[in-house]
UniProtKB/TrEMBL annotation:
<dbReference type="GO" id="GO:0016787">
    <property type="term" value="F:hydrolase activity"/>
</dbReference>
<dbReference type="InterPro" id="IPR014001">
    <property type="entry name" value="Helicase_ATP-bd"/>
</dbReference>
<dbReference type="GO" id="GO:0097681">
    <property type="term" value="P:double-strand break repair via alternative nonhomologous end joining"/>
</dbReference>
<feature type="domain" description="Helicase ATP-binding">
    <location>
        <begin position="275"/>
        <end position="447"/>
    </location>
</feature>
<dbReference type="GO" id="GO:0005524">
    <property type="term" value="F:ATP binding"/>
</dbReference>
<dbReference type="GO" id="GO:0005634">
    <property type="term" value="C:nucleus"/>
</dbReference>
<keyword id="KW-0227">DNA damage</keyword>
<dbReference type="InterPro" id="IPR036390">
    <property type="entry name" value="WH_DNA-bd_sf"/>
</dbReference>
<keyword id="KW-0539">Nucleus</keyword>
<keyword id="KW-0158">Chromosome</keyword>
<dbReference type="InterPro" id="IPR001650">
    <property type="entry name" value="Helicase_C-like"/>
</dbReference>
<protein>
    <recommendedName>
        <fullName>Helicase POLQ-like</fullName>
        <ecNumber>5.6.2.4</ecNumber>
    </recommendedName>
</protein>
<dbReference type="Pfam" id="PF21099">
    <property type="entry name" value="POLQ_helical"/>
</dbReference>
<dbReference type="GO" id="GO:0090734">
    <property type="term" value="C:site of DNA damage"/>
</dbReference>
<keyword id="KW-0067">ATP-binding</keyword>
<feature type="compositionally biased region" description="Basic and acidic residues">
    <location>
        <begin position="148"/>
        <end position="163"/>
    </location>
</feature>
<feature type="region of interest" description="Disordered">
    <location>
        <begin position="91"/>
        <end position="117"/>
    </location>
</feature>
Amino acid sequence: MIRVNRRRSGVCINQSTSNRKRRVLMAPVSFLQGSNDSEEDMFGDYDSFYGNDSLIAQVDDIEHKYLQDKNIDVKAAGEVVLGNLQSEVHQKEQDNFSGACQKHDSDPPDGNQELTESIFNDLPSSQLLYFEKMNELSSASRTSPVSKGRDERVNSSSDKVRDPLSFYAGAERRSRPTDSSSHSKPALCKAESLKDHLKSAMTGNARAQTLQVSKTKQLKEAVLSEEIFVARKAIESPSVDIGPFYRLPSKVKDLFRQLRGIETLYEWQHDCLTLESLQQRKNLIYSLPTSGGKTLVAEIIILQELLCRQKDVLMILPYVAIVQEKVRGLSSFGIELGFLVEEYAGSKGRFPPIKRRVKKSLYIATIEKGHALVNSLIETERIDDLGLVVVDELHMLGEGSRGAILEITLAKILYTSKTTQIIGMSATLNNVGDLQKFLQAEYYTNNFRPVDLKEYIKIRDTIYAVDSKSENGFAFSRLLNFKYSSNLERADPDHIIALVTEVIPKYSCLIFCPTKKSCENVASLVCKYLKKEFRAHKEREKEDLIKNLKSIGNGTVCPVLKQTVPFGIAYHHSGLTNDERKSIEEAYSSGVLCLLACTATLAAGVNLPARRVILRSPYIGNDFLKKNQYKQMIGRAGRAGIDSAGESILIVQEKDKHLVIFTNPLENCYSNLLLELTKGMQSLLLSLVGLKIAVTYEEVDNFMCCTLLGVQQQLLPKEKSLSEVIKDGLENLIEKGLLKGTISEKDHNSKSALTITPLGKATYKSSIDLAYCNLLYRELRKGLEGLVLESNLHLLYLSTPYDMTFTCSPDWMIYFRQFNQLSAAERKVADIVGVPESFITKKASGQAIRKNVDNAVVNRLYLTFVLYSLLKETNIWSVSEKFNMSRGYVQNLLSSAASFASCLLHFCEELEEFWVYKALLTELTKQLTYCVKAELIPLMEVAGVLEARAKQLYNAGYKTLAHLANANPETLVRMIEHLSRRQAKQIVSSAKYAGSVANTELCLNKKYRTSVTNLAIYPTLMLRY
């Protein structure tokens, strides 16, 4: 009654492991089937399953031995023989099987039913499902007598699965002939020997069509399919929760409480998270005032995607500082919940990202890096791995070249992936209809603020409350109550001291200033006239802050900060280094500092709320304040959980009063694809062809209709249609040598395909501005003819970003001094790039210059000198003093150069002729990214480790990523000063991740190792290419 299961063919025993590790024999073989003598003996002289012992011969001998006893009927003999056969195949299960057979012989039908029930109780439901699947498969392949007989056996087995109680009873019925019981014994006696029947069954099974996949594998797949089906049903069904906290595990709620101090959600947050559109995975735009809690909603949606749907997520943020802050904030969630947080900003980020089997990734990126990431996913056909894209500050779609890049990114996602959900949020949106149409999104809005905001305007010494019902938009509130001396009146005509002393030091205050210099002047002014009692407030913490700033500046502290910090006052703008800004922000958040004089960038950056926000002027630089900018700034007023209300005061001069109209609507968000041609329209067209999203004119035209520009075609010039704009853009790319093909008036609607050139491919994959791609190519070619390898000065010049040259104004005496400090070989670099020594000398001495020299090249070389000094000294403070530049500008130059070097590296990777640059640019990019001594670079690749921490770790003996990855967090806490346990765990986890990425890159770069070695040993090789 059994089939012995072989890997390919033969007699089959279907086996399944029960929970008690017991074998169950499932599918019977009829031994009464007559053999066909005409059939070829497929087994020849070898009638055993294995070479030494003949199993069929043993069956024959045992049969004859037991048939000698006339009292034993054929049925009993067959069962005893099978018991012996089973003992040969599964020796260790002999007792169990023999006992079952004996019980089958002697027990009444009720006993048979009990045995059958116990056997099937051991089978999991997924295994029963497997036999039903096999029944369906077999019914579809009945094409021959042999296969038909095999199907009948499978069907009979399936019937037993459906009716377990008939398992043995049914087998017994089929083991008897269909004739009457009086003829059964003669029929059995006339039957062929058991050996022949067994051989016949083996022959039938061998000739039968078998499944290509093993049944064990099919069983596993059936179980897995069942589990996946149930899981997906739970996730996709809007009515089924897979966790108590918005379909998330309760651990997520605990983490928000532990790490953020969030106990409950606002009502609007609950309403938004339970929107029907979100449950149906529709795209969504939502808008609330600043500080309303928009980001928390986005983070919960992100966690749902990562943990529930097991998809990767891209979060796009406007600035590098915000990206870094968000990476730090969400890394702890990643460690606790088992997903990766990857930073894509500056020179950081891998394209395409590493594809992982288990852990999913949250990519946190700037606008530019997010675009490059999406390109790489489309190119590798992995865009559907991206389950969700979250865009913060969605209104930036209307802001210059960065808005154009954001529009391109979102349009590509919408066009290439039907499964990726897009969530956009902003505090300042007006023409939402256009954005909804572009993103195919639902819209949710609410006016909720955690604390009330009271808006005021100050003219002279009078405070007016903003009132939309009044005639001019504001109504009288009060007069300032502060006695000004004549000297103080001259020093502070805008009464800033009166306004700030009403709230500090008990409460916090922000003063937004139009320029960076104004920030420093206001901070100095306020502390100059404050009473000495202000110094006593948190005096020790202020001293620690100054020590920290001194450590950051390698022993130097900004004179202004040294004067203002003791009073709890500081300034905040791009002139500070990243480390300085971070220290000041932390001190302000903890209450050590109570007043910040800052620029408008803080409003769009990190979240630093205040009791009172003062706008020093209705101008930003020379431009009048926009309504969007005003709303963002005043949105910082009022701290949830601390203040009962927030206040904003706009200082306006009498002459500007008529310009301030509070009833004006927010500015509309318009496409910038046309205004930013090289970073907008042309860049989009090039990448569409390069990524094969659209390779014909017709396809490009269809894509463009899906962009924000396609929605806002009223922005097009009156004399041109969208089709004509597309045609002009494609022709321009062909002229530049970036595309190949023809577009003419006659056939521009044809389906002739466009192709991308190697230069075009290198340009779009490296995110190089199309305005500079041909110039960059020529400079790299020229470098191959004679690249100076004595130092990295020549490489640094090639890595200096073009767009920084417009903000540079060289000091010619400094230029001359730096040039004279170069070696003879390094001076050749100036000649190669086109800045002769005579030009610099004449400029420094004030002589007239007759020879024309490209100012962009002159400025670029000057910036290269700054970078060269930075890499040698690794001290931003000393370099900024040497070149008479703000340290913030120097750090911005360094960051931009690192990012451009990364782009340049990708550019060279795509062009075979520039293979030599790859080896050199890889290391240079790291040097520019971290600007530290070479031995600290590996440690700086760990998230959250800055230079000061890297030095601590290195001095403590943790000198490589491997050392950190294998470190014990508790040991780190003991050895490293001011390191918390949570930070230690984060450092170890980040080191493990960074190490895995480094190993992957090492494997990918293996083919370049010989090149690196040869270049290091034989620099002259560079001159031959």
